[in-house]
Amino acid sequence: MKRTIILGIESSCDDTSAAVIADGVLLSNVTATQAIHESYGGVVPELASRAHQQNIIPVVHAALTQANVTKEELSAIAFTRGPGLMGSLLVGTSFAKAFAMALNIPLIDVNHLQAHVLAHFIKEQGVEPHLPQFPFLCLLVSGGNSQIIQVDKFDSMKVIGQTIDDAAGEAFDKCAKVMGLPYPGGPYVDKFAKEGNPKAFQFNKPHIQGYDYSFSGLKTSFLYTLRDAIKENPNFVEENKNDLCASLQATIIDILMVKLQKAAHDLKITQIALAGGVSANSGLRQAFVDYGKRNKWEVYIPKFAFTTDNAAMVAITGYYKYLENDFCSISLPPYARVTL
After folding, report:
1. Is the pTM of this model over 0.90?
2. How does pLDDT run across 175-194, given as a tens digit for each residue?
3. Same domain, 157 and 46
């Protein structure tokens, strides 16, 4: 029986990634990162798109080679159509279209946010799968998104809560920048937080109705705390770095988890998943375990390899869309902004 083999391509921001999935099982997942942005303190769109152009062919070749799959065996090509940086998306979209045309196989467009959620359904060879049961709630937290998503089926999701201003990952990175930490700041905050006291400092928490989030007030509170303290002691940040990071991280996690707990309680859903780049944060992962025990949730925490932008999540989304014959026209353009 012929296998269903999907090549996934991810190029929404600054990581060029390609993955191969056969009948739902991951065979390869290759990612080329772009270190050039570190010196700028953030992703430079023009540099990102140029790097994608350099990386995409070698990355796709490596993914096919590692999977021991030829291009003629591919059933379809799935690609991230959006949201993301337009220049970066254009590289992945253009390559996917050209490759699909050359091979005369279907093309599948993938929503980047949906792919983060469906990363939980990636199966690995020799690993017992731990898959969420429908319906479940997914807390999607990244540099650009903070959302609570109700997932009823593979192709049926709705955002029930989201940030009204900044995302959690953005709050981590911008507060880290104020402290003089390198970019991206989130992993550094996580690192120093492990040595600090999470109750050393108090920062403002928002009072937003429903399940929505806000992190702009927290950032302002953090900035003012540092500004006032540095006037008294120019070495304040360095002397209190661990405690500042621990307190910041604890505040962000508390904001995220309180709303998630409310949504789970109101909707009577006990299947709870975590997704997105910030799901690599050790404090948030531990909070998921703790809240799960306290509320009798069945929690699903992704492997680190599937937290950041990667093509495996694009390929698995493409796989399920392929089973439904959900293909796209080659004329569809990428999009920079969209919701689920």
Report:
1. yes
2. 999 999 998 899 999 999 99
3. no
